Structure formats: structure tokens, C-alpha cells
Amino acid sequence: MIFTYKKLKKYHFLFLIIAAIPLWVYSIIIFRLSVAYYQAPRPQAILMLGGSPTRPKFTAQFAQRHSSLDIWVSSGLPPEQVRPIFREANISKNRIHLNYEAVDTVTNFTTLIDNFKRHEIRHVYLITSDFHMPRAKAIATIVLGNQGIAFTPVAIPTKRPTEAWLFTLLDSGRALLWLFTGYTGAGLNAYFSYDQLENLF
């Protein structure tokens, strides 16, 4: 008992530092997000996460009401299917930026950071399905927030139930991993899929 107490006392300071790291990271992210919202109170671009055929149509309609904003599409339907949807909505092709580097929700964000910085975008509308939005917001807070990029969620109504909390937890962990190492953990997709995990819930 005495040995255990001494060991705990010896490493008490180390435990405190480790425990404080998440709070420190969270505080920095919240500060950078606050600055971004202050400096760019209105969204300067539209970010649509691919993954559902309904999202491009919704985004095209949304873009009609925000004619001054460029649209960034991260993966999803191929160009030959996406472009006609925007064309039918009379959205200029010069406003549309298609990016197919992402392979999942985490990389939806990490692969576009440099593009947003290059175009000096500090605030985006974040468009995705309502069932997917909690996970997207958690990742956006970590990835975009750490880079000083604010976001305003725009959820597309569906009849699907919200994704399991485990998905949000796993991808939040991957987003934090990217924050510290630059590695997204996308390679893990070769060993399991979220569709497989979903069957467990």
C-alpha cells in the first residue's frame, strides 16, 4: 500500500500534465474558433461533404440563395454526376471546386485545409445529412477549429436515425491524431468499415 502511494505521489505531476493536455487542446481550439467567428461572422464558402446522392441537389438549391459563395465538394458522386446537378440549378462552374482526395469524414476536412487557407476562407457553411451532422461537427471543431476556420452547420433532413456515438468518438480520436501527427488513420479503413460497426448497434 505504501509502495503504491509513493509511486502515485512520484508520478502525480506527470498524471496532471497528461490529464491537462485535452483541456489545453480544447481551450486553444475554442479560442481560435472564437477569433474566426469574430473576424468572419458570415460564411465565405460552402462545404458539402460527399456520401449521399441527395446532398448535391440540396447544396445546389442552397447555393442559389447564396450566389456570392463558392462551393467546395469533398468526394462523393463522380464529376459527371455532380456537375449536371449544379448546371441545372444555373450554378456557374467557376463557383464549383470538386475535390476527391477524401476517403472518409475525417479526410473530408483534412484534405481541404490548404485550399481554404490559400483562398483565405475563415468561415464555411457545412452541409451534410442530419444523421451525419453530429460526427461532422465534432471533426470540424477539431480540424477546422484548430486552423482558425469557423463553420455554420446546415443539416439536410432525412428519415435516418443519428449515427451511433461510437462513430463520433472514433473519428474525433482520429482528428486529434491528425492534429498531433499529421496522420489521419485513414489506413485503418482497410481493416474495418463503419458499415460493419453499424451492424453492432
Strand order of the largest sheet: 3-2-1-4-5
Provide the gyration radius in Å. 20 Å
Order of helices and strands: HHEHEHEHHEHEHH
Q: Using the coordinates above, name the CATH class.
A: Alpha Beta
> Which structural class should the secondary elements be placed in?
alpha/beta
Outline the low-pLDDT stretches. none
Strand content: 5-15%
The largest sheet, given as strand count, sense and whether it forms a barrel, is: 5 strands, parallel
At CATH level 3, the topology is Rossmann fold
Please, what is the CATH homologous superfamily?
HUPs
Estimate the helix proportion, in percent.
40-55%
Bulk shape: globular
Oligomer: single chain
What is the CATH architecture term?
A: 3-Layer(aba) Sandwich
Transmembrane segments: 12-38
Domain DUF218: 44-164
Keywords: Membrane, Transmembrane, Transmembrane helix
GO cellular component, one term: plasma membrane
Structural account:
It comes from Chlorogloeopsis fritschii PCC 6912. Pfam families: DUF218. InterPro entries: Cell_Envelope_Assoc, DUF218. This is DUF218 domain-containing protein. This protein is of the alpha/beta class. The protein has one domain (31-183, 191-198): 3-Layer(aba) Sandwich (Rossmann fold). It has 9 helices and 5 strands; from the N terminus they run ααβαβαβααβαβαα. It has a 5-stranded parallel β-sheet, sandwiched between helices. Helix 4 (79-88) links the parallel strand 2 and strand 3 (96-99). Helix 2 (12-39) crosses helix 7 and helix 7 runs parallel beside helix 8 (165-181). The chain is globular. 28% of the residues are buried.
